[in-house]
Design the sequence.
């Protein structure tokens, strides 16, 4: 019960020798993820937590440790090079767990990724969690549990928080994707929802959205077009955030007063999404609709 | 980071895009002098960061003899604002923008026929995609777009060249938006009558002329202090935004300082506070494993605001060691001599230890307080703070 990342995923960690990379390797391996290579230019030959370090993904591949996905923890100044390397290797997916990436760098990465087979997630993403199968990132795994619900979030902290309460209510997750909090991201809510739609073992989709960007509006359009037919449940944060300000998430910015939370709630609701006013109402709404967890039969 | 019109026009000028003749003025007397120097019909425009200024009465047409009244009328709406005084440029209006299409994930140059206040570029515009570098020759495509909008020959060529300059500027200045609305065909070429530029916050240090954006930057002292400290200490994040000015004395408003862990959590907090009639004085997020000192700096900035009645702290289920956060909160409150009603909703790594530290300090200092855990949400916390505030008032 997962999509994008699964139990067979072989992962490389770009920026493996930094503090966050080391911590993430511990977290991911503890969750059972197969981390086959670390990549830090100039550090080839070292080991981190037992994982061999290479100068490049190409070197890892040549050494028989070809990854099929990668997560980057590199500083923003190096993320374009890291992304280029992963895209050239034609991996299945690339997670950019990198914060504060300048917009021109983001656009350059997206240009490289156009037409590529590699699915880019982020930047400014907490990663991907397919509970019990694959954990890509540094989120605390105890919040997550396997099950039939996809969780798609524009916030890393709130993805963990939602999954904690869903798990507590007995509602497990198939795959959780933090799409990233920036204004321009690789895989957006709609693209992630399409993957969830295609996964036969995902029965519903839970969304944490927020003000700014038009991701929720596009998701609503995809639902209306019946590209997404599975039940969708959503909480949209920041309905009462002051417009015109940029907050921590560069994407949570309603510059013109046209991408505010109230509008998003309305368009999603009009498309048939169950939209709640408090995120703690989600487990009950989901459980009763999907017949799972404490609210199930 | 949004720029004032006068800043945007300096950047446009550097890129070879002219604006009407005029001056940035800081006072009524400077407005009068500028209008007299220009002679003829002028526009007096408040230099503020919101859009649609005309309908709010802070853009006014005047003659040298009426410029003073225009300045007075604008100051009655925006008492602290500076002005831009420019000559009127008659001519046909066009629309020019460089925006980022978030679905295509690229910049696009937008050209439209007809422009000005109320113009919606979706109604009549053509988009030309840009590559992520500035090396592409966009002129032929832009010339074609200009021709499709009705411009002919050299006119189409000139608008295309101006648009290409704007595209290059957008790349060099790391912008989200460059908007020239309207751009007017004057005697000496196309002129940017109004202009808006927003620069990516993450690229602030990369812009070619930082002094232009530093000059009239609309940051408060607290916002500046938060940024300065964050630049010194890269552990975790510290983002502070002032929402209610410190001189705001709206009667009856329950203004509270807010402090959160997590960007998404902070958005939740806004909604929870609103539902209980509480007004956030500020936004502040310290997440991603910040140091004790970073949290202390944030807590001090928040708690020392003179216009807050209470302190609201909430975390998502956080991975960062919350006992460090708790120590930072206490340190900041002590520096600010904080004594007001306080609600802390804390959940995640080391939550029990953190809650104990906070509760002990609040009790020792006899502050009205509530310390909540993961069994309560942000709305419960807002309700608790409202109850404390009402208790203090009673």
Sequence:
């Amino acid at each position: 019960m997962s999509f994008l990342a699964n139990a067979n995923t072989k992962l490389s960690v770009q920026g493996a020798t930094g503090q966050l990379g080391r911590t993430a390797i511990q977290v991911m391996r503890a969750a059972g993820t197969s981390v086959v290579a670390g990549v830090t230019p100039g550090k080839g030959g070292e080991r981190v937590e037992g994982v061999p370090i290479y100068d490049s993904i190409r070197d890892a591949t040549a050494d028989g440790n070809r990854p099929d996905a990668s997560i980057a923890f590199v500083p923003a100044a190096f993320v374009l090079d890291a992304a280029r390397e992963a895209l050239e290797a034609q991996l299945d997916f690339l997670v950019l767990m990198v914060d504060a990436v300048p917009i021109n760098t983001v656009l350059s990465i997206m240009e490289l990724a156009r037409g590529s087979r590699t699915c880019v997630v982020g930047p400014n993403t907490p990663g991907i969690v397919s509970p019990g199968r694959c954990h890509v990132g540094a989120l605390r795994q105890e919040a997550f549990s396997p099950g039939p619900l996809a969780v798609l979030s524009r916030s890393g902290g709130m993805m963990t928080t939602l999954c904690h309460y869903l798990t507590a209510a007995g509602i497990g997750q198939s795959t959780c994707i933090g799409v990233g909090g920036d204004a321009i991201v690789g895989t957006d809510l709609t693209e992630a929802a399409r993957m969830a739609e295609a996964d036969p073992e995902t029965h519903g989709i839970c969304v944490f959205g927020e003000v700014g960007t038009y991701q929720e509006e596009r998701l609503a359009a995809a639902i209306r077009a019946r590209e997404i037919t599975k039940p969708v449940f959503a909480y949209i944060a920041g309905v009462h955030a002051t417009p015109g300000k940029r907050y921590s998430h560069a994407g949570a910015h309603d510059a013109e007063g046209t991408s505010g939370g109230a509008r998003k709630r309305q368009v999603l609701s009009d498309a048939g999404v169950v939209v709640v006013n408090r995120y703690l109402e989600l487990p009950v709404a989901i459980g009763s609709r999907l017949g799972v967890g404490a609210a199930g039969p | 980071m949004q720029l004032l019109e006068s800043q945007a026009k300096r950047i446009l000028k550097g890129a070879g895009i002219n604006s009407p003749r005029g001056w940035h003025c800081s006072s009524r007397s400077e407005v009068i002098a500028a209008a007299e120097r220009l002679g003829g019909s002028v526009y007096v425009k408040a230099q503020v960061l919101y859009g649609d200024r005309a309908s709010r009465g802070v853009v006014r047409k005047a003659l040298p003899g009426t410029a003073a009244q225009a300045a007075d009328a604008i100051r009655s709406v925006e008492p602290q604002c500076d002005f831009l005084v420019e000559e009127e440029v008659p001519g046909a209006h066009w629309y020019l923008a460089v925006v980022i299409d978030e679905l295509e994930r690229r910049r696009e140059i937008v050209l439209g026929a007809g422009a000005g206040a109320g113009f919606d570029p979706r109604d009549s515009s053509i988009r030309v995609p840009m590559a992520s570098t500035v090396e592409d020759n966009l002129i032929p495509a832009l010339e074609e777009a200009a021709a499709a909008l009705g411009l002919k020959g050299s006119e189409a060529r000139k608008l295309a060249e101006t648009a290409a300059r704007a595209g290059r500027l957008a790349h060099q200045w790391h912008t989200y938006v460059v908007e020239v609305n309207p751009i007017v065909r004057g005697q000496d070429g196309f002129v940017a009558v109004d202009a808006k530029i927003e620069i990516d916050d993450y690229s602030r240090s990369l812009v070619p002329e930082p002094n232009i954006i530093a000059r009239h930057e609309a940051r408060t002292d607290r916002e500046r202090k938060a940024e300065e400290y964050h630049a010194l200490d890269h552990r975790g994040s510290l983002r502070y935004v002032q929402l209610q000015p410190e001189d705001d004395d709206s009667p009856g408003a329950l203004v509270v300082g807010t402090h959160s862990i997590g960007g998404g959590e902070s958005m939740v907090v806004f909604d929870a506070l609103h539902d209980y009639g509480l007004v956030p004085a500020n936004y502040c997020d310290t997440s991603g494993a910040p140091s004790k000192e970073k949290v202390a700096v944030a807590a001090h900035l928040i708690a020392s605001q003179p216009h807050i009645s209470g302190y609201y702290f909430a975390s998502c289920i956080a991975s960062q060691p919350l006992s460090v956060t708790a120590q930072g909160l206490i340190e900041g409150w002590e520096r600010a001599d904080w004594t007001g009603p306080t609600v802390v909703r804390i959940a995640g790594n080391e939550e029990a230890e953190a809650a104990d530290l906070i509760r002990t300090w609040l009790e020792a200092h006899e502050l009205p307080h509530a310390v909540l855990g993961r069994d309560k949400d942000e709305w419960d916390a807002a309700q608790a703070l409202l109850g404390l505030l009402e208790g203090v008032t009673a």
